[in-house]
Amino acid sequence: xxxxxxxxxxxxxxxxxxxxSGVAVLAASCSNAASSGSVxxxxxxxxxxxxxxxxxxxxxxxITAGFGDIVDGVRAYFDxxxxxxxxxxxxxxxxxxxxxxxxPTTDTEVARTLVEQDHVFAIVGVGTAxxxxxxxxxSTGTPTFGYVVSNVWSxxxxxxxxxxxxxxxxxxxxxxxxxxHQLGVRSAAVVGYGGVAxxxxxxxxxxxxxxxxxxxxxxxxETFTLGGDPDAIVAEMARDHVxxxxxxxxxxxxxxxxxxxxxxxxxxxxxxxxxxYSRSVVAANPTATDHVIFQLEHVxxxxxxxxxxxxxxxVTYLREMNRYEPAWTYHDTAFQGWVNAAxxxxxxxxxxxxxxxxxxxxxxxxxxxxxxxxxxxxPVNWTEAHTVDxxxxxxxxxxxxxxxxxxxxxxxxxxxxxxxxxxxxxxxxVTPPPGTPGT
Length: 439
Description:
Elements: H1 23-28, E1 50-57, H2 69-83, E2 91-99, H3 104-117, E3 122-127, H4 134-140, E4 144-146, E5 159-161, H5 173-183, E6 187-193, H6 197-209, E7 216-224, H7 231-239, E8 244-247, H8 251-263, E9 270-273, H9 279-284, E10 292-296, H10 303-306, H11 312-324, H12 332-351, H13 358-365, E11 393-401, E12 404-407, E13 420-422
Parallel strand pairs: 1-2, 1-3, 3-4, 4-5, 6-7, 6-8, 8-9, 9-10
Antiparallel strand pairs: 10-11, 11-12, 11-13
Organism: Aciditerrimonas ferrireducens
Family: Belongs to the leucine-binding protein family.
InterPro entries: Leu-bd (IPR028081), Peripla_BP_I (IPR028082)
């Protein structure tokens, strides 16, 4: 598979947090973490002039899905920080990138190697469909940052997901209903993968909620197979004159639906993709992707050039990614890696000149109430983001037209904000939380 993003929107569900444990065991296993020079190491991977971290991603195997892109975003951010002197006199070194080969057993083995043999201070950039290492990393207290695809991230206060660590499927219906109303649409088809809870659960929740807001769902299928044939479902959509497809599929299968919709005379219907945000796919398929809207959880890349004064954080991201990892600038998973690295560095800076330990870093981040990765994402409140996903829920939207992607004026906030926020009970926008980029 090519390096295209296949992850979906972070659907939120409340799970309890586990108690952090095992920090003493980890410290005992890291006796060779002493730094050179006169400064003694305060934690594994911490040296006089460097901090060693690792990453864990599916870079090969059956379900790579572009997960390895997360490492490119992490690396670019660290290169940028190191070029400006690092943090508190230390450069951040991405010492080892573990490949779990899309295998749950290997995932845990790789994490053990990073912690027990490589003695990394943190794991920054986890990109995998099978994060079986979550329990192990929670038990060791290793600060861990990555891409949330399941609720295993909500198990401990040292596991930090890109947009928070809790998934709740029930929060997106009001947002989709608002989109439908803005487009003048009154009926929707909802499609997700069978056997993939993150897809079927999300779309099932959407289908249940939309009628509450006046959007009928005459076509619903949460049993679609990866790489399957969309014709039968699209034929139903044409028969029922459906105006909007809500896709909980990956970018490749959403594109198959878009092409089938063209063939069945649904070229005027809209599609809302919750993953697959890709300039290259749109440019290569200009006709099929007309009327495709991408729902995002961050400031869209296009804002960096269209409104640089309003979104300086995206200007910085584009500039530095184009400098250090230009092949992956416009890939959503690489973007998440950038955010993960920014969260890690924010924690280091919050610790400041105090004794740097893994526990000190975790505690510092968990006091943050409005992390935005420098103006790129809605504020994350880490005093609660491990255990609850509190409203408002903010998204941005961009539309594909004639092979290009741009923000859609009809889907901007009341004051032309690109991030539009909702609670789960109403399809009318609410005031964005303080610090939301663009407000």
